[in-house]
């Protein structure tokens, strides 16, 4: 049934959107964008961006990939809610270490705020997913858009169309319901904006 659904045009498009705008992709891109914005030299970009990338993306995503290969996780999007606690908590621990290192490295406030946003939104998703399968795709897409608007201005409000596309893709693939997608977006955006404005 699932394989048949994904062979349709809408199913293929939904799968493409889900993969291209997956949480792992966005938490890789966002810190690098922020690091590039605040770095005044290639050395700073390498130091701050590399630290953020390692602890916010490489380690958390690596834990999930390793879990899939070992058979402990069903898929790289961790579709089974009961399997989410361990990778989410490990990812949070990694982001926390990265946050502490960036503070020690005196990273600019904007970059530090972005990493805190990733931690705060991740913590909220981890908490909610203990009881209910909130859409992490939607939460991270909404959080990313909120931060980009604050970093680069109102033109980036166009990103909300991509958030809607992500939500649509998760429902079409039947990985989430519309309430789960809406809850993700309504969790990610205000938490991200609040954390960023408080620290940025």
UniProtKB/TrEMBL annotation:
Entry keywords, A to Z: Membrane, Transmembrane, Transmembrane helix
Membrane-spanning parts: 45-68, 88-105, 111-132, 139-166, 178-199
This protein's name: PAP2 superfamily protein
Biological source species: Micromonospora chaiyaphumensis
Lineage, opening ranks: Bacteria, Bacillati, Actinomycetota, Actinomycetes, Micromonosporales
